[in-house]
Amino acid sequence: MEGDNSHVEMKLSSDMDEEVGENGVGEHHNSNGKPYVVQKLGHTPKNLCYFASGTLLIFIIGILIGYMSHGEKNVAPVCASSISLIENNVPHETGAAPLMDWDDVKSLLAQKFTAAKIEQAFSDFSQASHRAGSPEDEKLGNRVLQRFKEYGMNTWTDEHFIKVQDPPTSGYNKIVFRNMSEERPKGFLSYSGNGSVTGAVLYAHYGQEVDFRALRDKNINMNGRVMLVRAGKISFAEKVANAAKMNASAVLIYPDQADYKINNNTELYGHVHMGSGDPYTPGFPSFNHTQFPPVVSSGLPRILAQTITRGIGTRILRQLRGQNWPEDWEGYYRLGDESDTITVEVNNVLAEKKIHNVFGVIKGFVDSDRYVVIGAQRDAWGPGFASSTVGTSVLVELARSISDMVKNDGFKPRRSIVFASWSAGEYGSVGATEWLEGYLSSLNMKAFSYINLDGIVTGRNGFKVAGSPLMHSLIENTLKEVKNKEMLLFNEFAKSNWELNILEPMQLDSAAYPFLAFSGIPSISFRFTTDNSDYKYFGTLEDTLENLNMATSSQVPQLAETAGRFAGHIVLRLVHDHLLQMDVMKYYKIIRSDVFKINGKVKEVLQMQPQLLPKALTVQWLISASGSYSRAARSLQVDIQNSDLEDIEMCRLINDRIMAVEKNFLSPYVSPRESPFRHILVGSGPHTLKALIKHLDALKINNPEADAELFRNQFALATWAIQGCANSLAGDIWSLDNNI
Question: Boundaries of each PA domain copy (predicted)?
C-alpha cells in the first residue's frame, strides 16, 4: 500500500506543477533564477484551494486502495464460502457455497429417488443364490462396482480371505431321539463345535438368561443336557452362549409355530459366533499377506449347535416327560427328564473363502476427509430378498440420486459419503467387521456415522429404529420430515411416545453393532416390520420377493422408497449442516441412570454381604465422573451457541469433539480378542456398566460365580473410562474438569 500511495503522490505533484505553470508560476525557476519554493504557493487563495483538493483526493484514493486490498485478503474465511485462494492468490471455486436450502435438498432427493427406480433395481440385483464367496456373490459385487463407476464416483474394492464353517460336503449332520429314526437336517449353524454327544433333552423356551434362571429355580440339573430352544427373541449365538454357561452339551434350535408361520420342513441357517467378523482372526483383519499367530475368538462356542425343522422339533416336544413348563411359558408341553435321550452329531467343515467389499465415494467440498458410511450386505443363504436384495438396491439408488444432485443440481456436501456393499454378512457381518479391523486407526476420527440398510423392509404396519443415543435427536427430526404415503413416519408410528414405540436396543447380529460397539462410530439400523415382530423368512431359503410381498401387501417398492428416504435424509443432513446433528447430552441420561442403580446396589451389598466389599468402597468417584461428563457436555452446548458457525476452523474443532464421544466410550483396558465390543454403555462384556449392575446382583445373593475383586477392578476402570470421555469432550487440556 505504501508503494501505491507513493506513486499517487508523485503523480499529484506533477499535476500540481502543470496547473501552477499555466498560471504563470509553474516554472521551476523564477525570473531571478532562484529556486522555486512551496511556501510561495501558500500565499494565494487559489493555491490553498488546489492543495486542499489534492489532499482530499489522496485521502479518498488511499481509502479505496486499502478497501480493495483488504477485500482481496478475506475472500474465504467462512464455512459457507465458495472461494479459496490457491497458488499466487488466484481465486478458486471450492463448491461449498452457496449453501443449498435444506428444503431444496429434500425436494431433490424426493424427485430422484422413486419407487419405480427401486423396482427396476430389484430385478437388476436379484439372484436365486449368492452365498458369500461364491461366483454369484462376486458377480453381484462387480455389478454394484460398475454402477458406482457409471455415476462418476471414486471406487475401490477390499479383498479378504476368511474362514467360515459350511455344512459337510460329504456326509451329513444328524440327530436321533431315543431309538427313533435318524433325522438329517440340511440347515446348519456355522462355527458350531463338531463331534457327537448324547444327552437328555431339556426344553429351555427361547434360551434367554431369564429362561435358564426359571429352570434353575425349579432345581433342574442342566449339566450335559441337550437344550431344545425356540428361534426368536435373541440371536442364535446368544442362545448357544447362554446354554454353554449352564454346562449344556448341545443346543437344538427350531422355529415354533407360534412364532413362525412357515412350512414344517423349512430349514434354518445361521451362525453361532458370539461376536462379528472372522472368528479365526479376532481383532485384526483377514488380509492374505498378514502373518498373525493362530488364535480364535473367545466368542466361538465349544458345544454343538444345530438347527432342526419345526416338524422335528414338534415331534420331540410332544414326547417329552418330566416337569411342567413354568407358568409364564406359553404352550402345553413338558420340560423333559433324564430318560429323554438324544444323540446329536455335527460334522461341519472349515473352509477359506475370498470375499470382496465394494465402495464408492462422493467427496465433500469442505471437510472431504470426514465421511458418513452407508452400507448393505450383498450375500444371502438363498434368494435373500429381504435380507440383501432390498438393501443393495436402495444403496445403489441412493448413490445414483445423490451423485446426480451433486453433478446436475448444484448440491455440494460439506463432508464425504461412502457407499459400501459388504460380503459375508450372513456369517456375522464378516465383511464389514474385517474392514473396520483393517482400517480402525484411519476410521477412528474420520468416519462419523454408519447407516445400515440390511433388512429395512420386513413388514408394513410397524417401524423400528436402533441407534446410538448421540443420534436420537436426528432420528426424531427425520421421523418428522419423511412421509410414508401421505403421513409422516412420526405421526404414524410414534403415537404418544416415539422413544417407547419406535426405538429399540441394537442387536448383536446387526451390521451396525460392530461399528458402534467395536469401533465407536455412531450408527443406525432401522426397518419396517409387521406387528413389531421378526420377519419369518430370515435365515431360510424362502426369503423371496413373493413371501415379502405377502408380508407387506405387495408394497415392497413403496416401503423401500420410504425407508431409503429416511436413510437419505439422515445421510444428507450429516453432510449438509455446519455442525453434526448429534446430542451429547443423551448419553448423560444413560450414565446417570446406570450410576443411580450401581449406587443403590452397592449399598445393598454392603448391608447384606458386608464381608464381600470393603466398607471404604464408595461410588463417589463414579458420581464425580458422571458429573464431569455432564459439565463437559453442557460446556460444548454453550460453545456451540456462542461460536461463529461461519468459521471453518471452529466448525471443525466442535465436530471433532462431538465425534470423539462415541470412540472414548470404548474401554481401553480390555482386549479386542476377549471383549471385542468394548463400549462401556452399549457393548457387551464384564467391563460394561450393565455388567457391573448384574455383578452386584450376584454379590448380593453371594453367588459363587461372583468375584468381588473382579468387580472392584472393573468398577475402577469403568469410572476412569467415563472420566476420560469427559476430559476429551471438554476440549483443550486447560479446559478439563480435574475434580476427580
Answer: 200-264
